[in-house]
Write a structure and sequence with these properties.
about 10% strand; 29 helices; alpha/beta; single chain; four-stranded antiparallel beta sheet; Alpha-Beta Plaits; six-stranded parallel beta sheet; Rossmann fold; Na+/H+ antiporter like fold
Length: about 675
């Protein structure tokens, strides 16, 4: 017997259970979305019946509208801009391969029509944007190669869904007019979208500027909610899916200059929308359908989790990326999408899909989401294992063979992002030879324009490191965002040449110990280096001497960033700090034209007797004078090179600063 649950009671139950499930699953380090889906199946109408069936569809619709609005807002075209047509080719191939294979199997094994089979094929080809973005964000892989591919393909999948949803209303069995009607409806839909997009691009920036200028954060949040609800209402009024309208509204706002502020305001609510939708989606699963067709569903899930990553890897490899990266991206895309539910639900409303098939699709989609979310953390190791076994990675370019023998006593840079490109420019400016390993064609082209020697390929493979001259290199710098790939590169480079100086950059300090264990000589965590720079600037702003600031930074780095990781500072660390302060150092001091030191000789200044600090050189007009004689006369614009202990340097700078005081008239 169903429980006639009041709407407000149902809200309390859903979010009360969501809080408990989120806490429990975070304790055991399992994605919370899995808990939401399982909980939904448990408390829904076919489970414990804590929420009545009259509310489930409504909750699912509200949750989906809000969730797809945030997805549209967060999706950025930047991955497409960076990778260009390669990513478009990969996305089209992934959707085409998967949809064609599934449709072919359904036509051969069932009584479904070709159109319905193709519809299910596209639904299976789509991947969950919410799950993928959440997993990538939690693991810090959004900017990695596989993260860029995943986000780009998801964006293009969403574009495909928008087009298909626009066409569904004219593909119903009762439709008349044939292909002319389909074309006319498609043209009308595209015209409406184009007009809305053009109006939004002209009007939205002006509205948002006024909101930000006069309304503040509160009005900005309210406007975002209005856009989500207005998009859903407008789409529903035109006979489209409300979720489609909300997603389009999010995409329109994503093009505004205030996008990042909007994302910051909406982000706190994203997990709420996730909980509401995925619990509601779990409640839509009829357990009797799941258990009745369990063997078939398990077979479908196994086939999806196996074949979809392989098909995606093939599509990505055809576009020019290594198979390892393709497998990693394929595992991230192996779930079935929330848009798949929207697509099949809309098709069911149009009579294209029978209710029984829709129920089976929902059960299959939910189970695939659970399996894919569980599989995602193992994407890196699986991708490396399969990539090594297949041996089909892009090993090298022909130019690499010709140039590999020329490298000697050089620096190998892996990755030409922000860190790698800046390092390459500095090395070139100081005439230190370097060689870049990169597999992104856009980065390769940029590096070659800068005159950098490039080996095209994946540094995970030893053959690529050999082409880059690892046996004759002075140092190896790994500057990529993929932690698993970084770990493997460091390990095999250290195994090949233990004496090689290996520097690795990592996004998080928690990855440091693993990289040191694999043989890195220095690991620089990006997040803590940023915090150190902030702290150093603040200390200098408060007048703390440079030697104290530098000593604090050196002590933090010497202790493996333990101070910033919450570890207690022991006596050994304090002793190390004292030693650092006592060490001899060298600094320069500029004499302005107002300095009282100008006109004095070295003997008259007598800096060593007063402070213990020595002047070992004076640079004048770019020409250095080493060990200046006692009768050497200081002039304006001279640069003094000082050497001494930190305390002596500070005393000398204090004396010279007093000498720089303006002369009294």
């Amino acid at each position: 017997m169903e429980t006639n649950t009041h709407f407000l009671d149902a809200i309390v139950i859903i979010f009360g259970v969501a809080v408990a499930v989120a806490w429990l699953f975070r304790q055991v380090r399992v994605p919370t979305i899995i808990g939401f889906l399982i909980t939904g199946m448990a408390i829904g109408p076919s489970g414990w019946q804590l929420v009545g069936s009259e509310n489930v569809a409504q909750f699912a619709e509200i949750g989906l509208v809000l969730l797809l609005f945030t997805i549209g807002l967060e999706l950025s075209p930047e991955p497409l801009m960076r990778s260009g047509m390669r990513l478009v080719k990969a996305a089209n191939s992934q959707i085409g391969f998967t949809a064609a294979l599934v449709a072919g199997i359904l036509v051969a094994a069932t009584q479904l029509s070709g159109m319905t089979s193709l519809l299910f094929g596209v639904a299976v080809a789509l991947s969950s944007t919410a799950i993928a973005l959440k997993q990538l964000s939690d693991r810090g892989e959004t900017g990695s190669a596989n993260g860029t591919i995943i986000i780009g393909i998801l964006l293009l999948q969403d574009v495909v869904v928008i087009v298909l949803l626009l066409l569904l209303s004219v593909l119903s069995p009762g439709g008349s007019g044939g292909w002319m009607r389909i074309v006319a409806h498609a043209v009308a839909g595209i015209a409406i979208l184009a007009a809305a997009t053009g109006l939004a691009r002209w009007l939205l920036p002006r509205i948002l500027n006024q909101i930000v200028r006069y309304g503040g954060r509160e009005l900005l949040t309210l406007f975002a909610v209005l856009m989500a609800c207005g998009g859903a209402w407008g789409a529903s009024a035109m006979g489209w899916s409300p979720a489609l309208g909300a997603c389009i509204a999010g995409l329109l706002l994503a093009g505004a200059d205030q996008r990042h502020q909007l994302v910051a305001e909406i982000t706190p609510f994203r997990d709420v929308f996730n909980a509401l939708f995925f619990i509601s989606l779990g409640m839509l699963v009829r357990l009797e359908v799941l258990f009745t067709h369990l063997p078939l569903i398990m077979l479908m899930i196994a086939a999806t989790l196996l074949l979809k990553p392989l098909l995606t890897a093939g599509a990505v490899a055809m576009a020019g990326w290594p198979v390892r990266v393709g497998i990693h991206a394929g595992i991230g895309l192996c779930t079935v999408s929330e848009f798949s539910y929207v697509l099949t639900h809309q098709a069911a409303r149009q009579g294209l899909v029978q209710p029984e098939a829709m129920e089976l699709m929902v059960a299959y989609a939910v189970c695939t989401m659970i399996g894919g979310a569980l599989l995602f953390p193992f994407a890196g190791p699986i991708a490396h294992a399969v990539g090594g076994w297949l041996r089909r990675d892009q090993e090298h370019s022909g130019e690499a063979d010709a140039k590999s023998s020329e490298f000697h006593d050089h620096v190998i840079i892996v990755g030409y992002g922000f860190t790698g490109s800046n390092l390459a420019r500095m090395l070139q400016a100081t005439h230190i030879p370097c060689c870049l390993i990169e597999m992104n064609p856009a980065h390769v082209a940029n590096a070659r324009r800068e005159g950098v020697e490039v080996v095209v390929g994946d540094a995970v493979r030893m053959t690529i490191l050999e082409h880059a001259g690892i046996d004759a290199a002075r140092a190896l710098v790994v500057a990529i965002n993929d932690h698993e790939a970084t770990r493997r590169i460091v390990a095999q480079a250290n195994a090949r040449r233990p004496e090689l100086y290996i520097l690795a950059r990592t996004d998080f300090v928690t990855n440091m110990d693993a990289l040191y264990e694999k043989g890195a000589k220095l690991v620089i965590p990006q997040d803590f280096e940023t915090s150190i720079e902030v702290a150093a600037h603040i200390l200098r702003q408060f007048g703390i001497p440079d030697n104290i600031v530098e000593a604090q930074i050196a002590a933090v780095r010497a202790g493996g960033y333990g101070m910033l990781r919450g570890k207690a500072t022991d006596r050994a660390a304090q002793t190390e700090l004292i030693k650092i302060l006592e060490r001899t150092t060298t600094q320069t001091f500029y004499l302005s034209d107002q300095s009282r030191v100008c006109g004095q000789t070295v003997a008259q200044l007598n800096l060593r007797a007063q402070t213990g600090c020595m002047i070992i050189a004076v640079v004048r007009s770019g020409s250095p004078t080493t060990n200046p004689s006692p009768d050497f006369v200081f002039q304006p614009n001279d640069v003094l090179v000082l050497v001494g202990a930190h305390q002596q340097i500070e005393a000398a700078k204090g004396l010279l600063d007093r000498g720089n005081a303006p002369r009294s008239e």
